[in-house]
Write a structure and sequence with these properties.
Elements: H1 5-16, E1 34-37, H2 41-44, H3 46-54, E2 58-61, H4 71-85, H5 94-110, H6 122-132
Parallel strand pairs: 1-2
Length: 143
């Protein structure tokens, strides 16, 4: 595969979904169902799409010519850089960054207390939400 964005992105995607084995086990309590991106050519390439299909991940691509869906992600990336990447420089290699990122995401979703949702972790908030809001069958469908 050529060493350009179209080649590096699928390899990075494979890495992030577990194609490589880390030296230390990381427990993650989440499953990726959808990945969202802009409409850049590397995200619409055949190789990237094939990797998503192999991993049973749905692709979601934002509309072209606006940045309406970027604000939340930019905020998240800012937190990630401020809380993890910058304080731990210099990194010794990509594997160290990948492992630390997986651990940070797990902590962020499962342990970090969020004031906007009552000082509980997001995973707990989501669990509570679905326990109280059972899906209703669609109109005209027999349960």
């Amino acid at each position: 595969m050529p060493d350009d964005l179209h080649g590096r992105l699928p390899r990075a995607t494979s890495t992030s979904i577990g194609a490589r084995k880390n030296t230390r086990p990381v427990t993650c309590h989440f499953t990726i169902h959808t990945t969202h991106s802009d409409a850049g050519s590397q995200y619409t390439s055949f190789a990237f799409t094939a990797h998503l299909l192999d991993a049973a991940i749905d692709a979601s691509i934002g509309t072209v010519g606006d940045a309406l869906d970027n604000a939340l992600m930019e905020s998240q990336i800012g937190l990630y850089k401020t809380e993890l990447i910058k304080p731990r420089k210099p990194w010794h290699g990509l594997a160290d960054v990948e492992l630390a990122t997986a651990e940070w995401v797990d902590w962020f979703n499962n342990q970090r207390l969020h004031t906007a949702i009552g000082d509980i972790p997001p995973h707990e908030h989501e669990t509570n939400y679905y326990a109280q809001h059972q899906p209703q069958p669609a109109a005209g469908v027999n349960a």
